[in-house]
């Protein structure tokens, strides 16, 4: 038997870092939403009792370091499953890009194995388990749009933004989230207005959403990689309604309301950047099933 699951990327409409906690994690406030750029995960039963990772991408580890492997191992241990599984990852989300590709693969693996192994666990339980693997996994288990607080694992559902296009441009560099947090100086942060972003979503006010996008990590990544600023400038110049770096970067996204502008912005960016995507918002969590 096999199960197919979709593992969509996320973008941060806003990302704030409040303070460093005694346990070493940063307390954050993030408004995140899933977009229609997704890895495809196939889970197939194996005759032998082991976890096997298959992926054609040379950037994805094929052993215990893979977040999908960690998800399967966690479920096996917690629920005493003595079955094997082959996890095939068809990688479409750029790696180390600020789009939570690895976390989404882990979340999709939890959702898929819940079916394959007939565990019947609620999403809230899968999200709780996911938080043991990584801070973004809990959000990815639910998908849709949410406010993530704590170290990112406390999820409060929010209405999804009004439908629009999302243009993504990733320069040819990978960014380590840990490195960006190391460089972050808390007293210099430009804090986004999370409350205003949440209100804008409830009001379904596209213009207001655009005026409140903000990312506290942007300053750090822009300082280290000037090419990210260049992409931001180009995206604005070509006419995106809002432009922001996602997560710790380096991917920059633009929100675009009118389809008539999408091709122009896409083509303009292709001149600067190898990896450019034009996708839709994914809307609510039903899209994951
Ligand atoms: P986030 O936005 O959550 O910080 P990211 O998008 O910046 O994440 P990922 O694409 O998740 O970063 O990859 C970060 C690192 O995780 C990679 O360098 C890779 O070695 C490792 N990794 C482990 N499992 C996976 C996976 N399934 N897909 C991609 N990378 C993975």
Characterization of the model:
It contains 10 helices and 11 strands. Helix 1 (about 65-80) runs parallel beside helix 2, helix 2 packs across helix 3 (about 125-130) and helix 8 packs across helix 9. The protein is an alpha+beta fold and about 290 residues long. A hairpin with a 6-residue loop joins strand 9 and strand 10 (about 250-255). Helix content is about 35%, strand content about 30%. Strands 1, 2, 3, 4, 5, 6 and 8 form a 7-stranded mixed beta sheet that branches. It has a 4-stranded antiparallel beta sheet with strand order 9-10-7-11, covered by helices on one side. It folds into 2 domains: about 1-160, Ribosomal Protein S5, domain 2 (2-Layer Sandwich), CATH 3.30.230.10; about 165-285, 2-Layer Sandwich (Alpha-Beta Plaits), CATH 3.30.70.890. Bound molecules: adenosine-5'-triphosphate. Adenosine-5'-triphosphate binds near residues 60, 96, 247 and 248. Adenosine-5'-triphosphate binds near residues 96 and 136.
